[in-house]
Amino acid sequence: MKHLSEEAMVELYYGEGEGDASAHVKACRECAAQYAELTQSLDAMSPVVVPAKDAQYGERVWQALEPRLIPYEKKARGWFGWSLSGWTGWKAATLALGCAMLLAVAFAGGRYWERITAKTENSAGNKNPQTTQPTVVVVLTDHLDRTERLLVALEHADSQDHVENAQLQSEARELLVSNRLYRTTAKHAKDPALAGALDRLEGVLAEIANDPNLTAEDLQRVRSEMNTQGILFEIRVLKTRTTDQGNKTNSGRGASI
Amino acid sequence: MQENDHSIVRAVLAGDKEAYGALVHAHSGSVFRVAFRMMGNEADAEEIVQEAFLRGYQRLESFQQRASFGTWVYRIAVNCALDRIKRPGIEAEYRAGDESDPEEKTVQVETQDADPERALLSREISAVQERAMQRLTPTEKTAFVLRHHEDRSVSEIAEVLGIAPNAAKNAVFRAVQKLRRELAPLRGMA
């Protein structure tokens, strides 16, 4: 019988575990004992007593806040929140007519442009459905490169060098933002290997980025607790994969990026 | 309530600054609660409340009408508190809890015992708890407070912290692991 992990027990305690976990705890004596111990320690975390605030508290907050607020500019709001104050009926009608004409010109221009572009593509005779893919691959490879460098730096960062730590932290902050976008995209593109690796990576980046006073001990803790070696390995595998994808696309097109 | 909040937001954006007072009255209690749980003292929590409502007012144009104003300003407050915890000075002050007067630094915890010995023990336990909380990273501390004390789901925590749900789940898990380790000597005392 496979026993429950500590993580699964924590999830179960907070009511987010699967139904199987609950059934397992009921059936398995060993897990039941461990779960009881976990429950006891978490229950013992006494609730923090928040000082009671009287009914006037909200008013006091408002009184302190009010002088610091600058009123928003008064606007008469029309369709889609556009300001139409001061516009008479005929002016609005002229605007609407102008917009409609502009739209018609843009539509006709678009059709004409489409026809010209299609003609040019046909005459070139080299249509490739993956023309945009290399750009995506290059951008992702660049992100993975930077990530790899950060993880390598993290592996070797054991000094008390504050400047180096600050650089590491600033790089982690930048990567955290782009990593979030890549993870979401990978998830939508149904690429679980990439999404999973970026997900684990995000945890490491968040830890480094959010630490107010990054010390050698903090870095050591991140390395040991979050298995950065394993993540580095995953990133290297993914890099190889994306580079291969890029090469295939290029050889198909007979050109290099 | 939500519909009412939305109409107030529209009024504020149309220039009625005074209308914002109604939102402050309605939500200052819940914002104070989470701020206190994160900061551990009343003075800092009150400052966080002010800052959260001020930032909320300044960014009101970005508030999306499908969201709840209460949840929105709550998230701003958590981020204000997180920013403050992350400031090196504040963090150093937090971590200095070991050396300073425990009475001053310790967050009050519930005790219904009139027995002085039990009360002393309870205070001792709460001091150990507070020290254990201070050893968590800001992300772990926020994730734990939101999960354990505020009963927020992992996805809500992820949204507040701007990280993936799995990373939020791991942060809660690491916090629980560390706290259990720190509090292990107290087992059986409580």
Q: Could you explain the architecture of this structure?
A:
In chain A, 22% of the residues are buried. Among the domains of chain A are: 6-42, no CATH class; 133-253. Chain A contains ten helices and no strands. Chain A is mainly alpha-helical and 257 residues long. The longest helix of chain A is centred in the middle third of the chain and has 36 residues, at 89-124. Residues 252-257 of chain A have low confidence and may be disordered. Chain A has helices at residues 6-13, 19-27, 29-43, 57-65, 89-124, 133-156, 162-188, 192-210, 216-225, 228-253. Chain A starts with 5 loop residues before the first helix and ends with a helix. Chain B is an all-alpha fold. Chain B has a domain at 1-86: Rna Polymerase Sigma Factor, Chain: A (Orthogonal Bundle). The radius of gyration of chain B is 19 Å and the shape is elongated. The N and C termini of chain B lie far apart (42 Å). The chains are: A mainly alpha (257), B mainly alpha (190). At the A-B interface, helix 1, helix 3, helix 4 and helix 8 of A face helix 2, helix 3, helix 4, helix 5 and helix 7 of B.
